[in-house]
UniProtKB/TrEMBL annotation:
Gene3D superfamilies membership: 1.20.120.1490
Name listed for the protein in its UniProt record: Heavy-metal resistance protein
Pfam families linked: Metal_resist
PROSITE patterns: PROKAR_LIPOPROTEIN (PS51257)
Organism of derivation: Stakelama pacifica
Top-level taxon of the source organism: Bacteria
């Protein structure tokens, strides 16, 4: 069976999207009986006081806006990659540049997420920080935390 250019393009795009989603999910969730995000862990497991909850809500609102912008930027970079692939039908200079752009946008998202994680950590008391640090390490390594 012969594979056409459009089919190859779609397969590559689906693989890129799946990879992006997988990378993000791996950084946000750990394996438990149900996936628990870092935000859920902080809210449900760390017994935050009212002041901590209020500051965390502010951080989360700001990060939601930043993350939406970064997600849109990543989608636009993926669209540029699709266009370059359709134009070149080969691993040419436009495709290579578009891939670099996608990776840069993914890196921007990861850096923003890590900055947000550290901002959340600063809201915690030392005992909460220890538990938080174990949870972050567990989320990143896939090894059991708490």
């Amino acid at each position: 069976m012969k594979v056409g250019g459009l089919q190859l393009l779609l397969a590559v795009l689906l693989a890129l999207i799946a990879g992006c989603i997988g990378a993000f999910a791996a950084s946000e969730w750990r394996e438990t009986s149900h996936p628990q995000t870092l935000h859920e862990f902080v809210h449900e497991e760390l017994d935050l006081d009212a002041a901590q909850n209020a500051r965390l809500d502010q951080l989360e609102a700001r990060f939601a806006v930043e993350r939406k912008e970064l997600d849109l930027s990543l989608r636009a970079a993926n669209a540029r990659l699709a266009s370059a692939m359709e134009e070149e039908h080969d691993y040419g200079p436009k495709v290579a540049a578009a891939i670099d752009d996608v990776h840069a946008r993914m890196g921007d998202l990861q850096k923003a997420t890590v900055r947000h994680v550290f901002a959340m950590r600063m809201l915690l008391d030392p005992a909460q920080q220890q538990r938080f640090d174990r949870q972050v390490a567990s989320s990143l390594t896939g090894e059991p935390g708490e």
